[in-house]
Design goal:
The protein is an alpha+beta fold. The protein is built from 15 helices and 11 strands. The strands form 3 sheets. Strands 1, 2, 3, 4, 5, 8 and 9 form a 7-stranded antiparallel β-sheet that branches. The protein has a two-stranded antiparallel sheet with strand order 6-7. β8 and β9 (224-231) form a beta hairpin. α5 crosses α9 (236-258), α6 runs parallel beside α10 (268-281) and α11 packs antiparallel against α13 (319-332). The longest helix is centred in the last third of the chain and has 23 residues, at 236-258. It is globular, with a radius of gyration of 19 Å. The two termini are 28 Å apart.
């Protein structure tokens, strides 16, 4: 059975005011004191961010438990130095990002200017194991139309610099300012995938293959497909649902490839529109149906995702878990909807952040 690992980026904030705090170095030092050999937590582009990675798991219940455990561990380390962690994909409050000390990060700032300083956004990356690069690229070619649906499910960044953006996932609009970000054309083979990345690096516009910021890509470090579209999810169970659906998509796509079924030929231009639709409305409006790329109610599109991956979900024992997760999500809404409901009740973005501290560990 395919293994799945999750990387999440968390926002470090003041527990009382909700203001982002550039204390990642101190949190990492505290984690190292607790466990000198720890390899779970890492720094990110800005000092207001903390990243963690789970171990590869084959059981989705175990993966969900690990996400909760590490989030609580991160909160404990942060609390010991006077801050807190929030699973928010963008800060609702105004913030001046503090660049982490790192040659790579300095290169990014010098190369790209203002867009680099606007990248204080937190994502969730899901790694799903594949047998080979050839299988991995076949998967990438076949899951392209479904990535926008994952974007809508995870959307958790409605606020930016103290304002409601009108988007469910404004993080995605910020992230897509990188020149190499977004959907890709079908590659057709591992050779063509690697040649494309090499040609991108050769232009000098990106530093290395790690900057091929595709919505989904082959991992440079692990034998996995890395699906990168999701906002960090407010609730851990939503993150586990995203991981479950990612594995089912990968397995379904791999089976289609082995059966000789061709990859969809949707153009990048249309995929970008589908991604915009998902980022703008999340689950509150229509999405573009992955089969037709025409508008359809979000609930119907989510049901189509469950139908498309039904055999893979059943074979992994995840069908009931996925069905319950989607039903719960349609009933309660994603992180963007929860944040806006909190603002309606409190009329305070500071209160939104402090309320989300509890939901992060739930």
């Amino acid at each position: 059975m395919r293994t799945v690992g999750v990387e999440e980026e968390l926002l470090l904030v003041d527990p009382d005011s909700g203001d982002p705090k550039a204390l990642a170095a101190a949190v990492l030092a505290r984690a190292a004191l607790d466990d000198p050999g720890q390899d779970v937590f890492e720094k990110e582009l800005f000092g207001q961010m903390l990243e963690f990675a789970t171990h590869p798991q084959s059981d989705m219940a175990d993966l969900g438990d690990e996400i909760v455990r590490i989030r609580k561990e991160a909160a404990r380390h942060a609390g010991e130095i006077g801050c807190a962690v929030a699973a928010l994909a963008s800060s609702p409050l105004a913030v001046s990002p503090s660049l982490s000390v790192n040659d790579r990060y300095r290169w990014l700032a010098e190369r790209y200017g203002v867009p680099t300083w606007e990248q204080l956004v937190c994502g969730c990356h899901v790694h799903v194991s594949v047998e080979s690069d050839e299988e991995g690229v076949a998967v990438l070619d076949r899951i392209r139309p479904w990535l926008a649906v994952l974007r809508a499910i995870s959307a958790n960044s409605p606020f930016w610099q103290g304002q409601d953006t009108g988007y469910a996932s404004y993080r995605s609009r910020v992230w897509n300012r990188w020149p190499s970000a977004g959907p890709t054309e079908p590659f057709g083979s591992a050779e063509r995938y690697h040649r494309t990345v090499a040609e991108m690096v050769a232009t000098g516009a990106i530093l290395d293959e790690g900057m091929a910021y595709f919505d989904a890509r082959l991992s440079a470090s692990y034998p996995t497909v890395e699906i990168r579209v999701a906002d960090v999810c407010l609730r851990a169970d939503t993150a586990a649902l995203i991981a479950t659906l990612c594995r089912a998509l990968v397995e379904t796509a791999a089976r289609d490839w082995r059966a000789g079924r061709p990859a969809p030929g949707h153009s990048v231009s249309l995929l970008r529109l589908g991604d915009w639709q998902a980022a703008r409305f999340g689950l509150e409006g229509e999405l573009l149906d992955p089969a037709t790329l025409r508008p359809a109610p979000a609930e119907r599109v989510l049901r189509s995702l469950l139908e498309y991956t039904a055999h893979a979900l059943a074979d992994s024992g995840d069908a009931d878990r996925a069905e319950r997760g989607v039903a719960d999500l349609l009933r309660t809404g994603n992180g963007a909807r929860e944040q806006r409901r909190l603002l309606e009740r409190t009329d305070s973005l500071r209160d939104v952040v402090t309320a989300c501290l509890r939901l992060t560990q739930g």
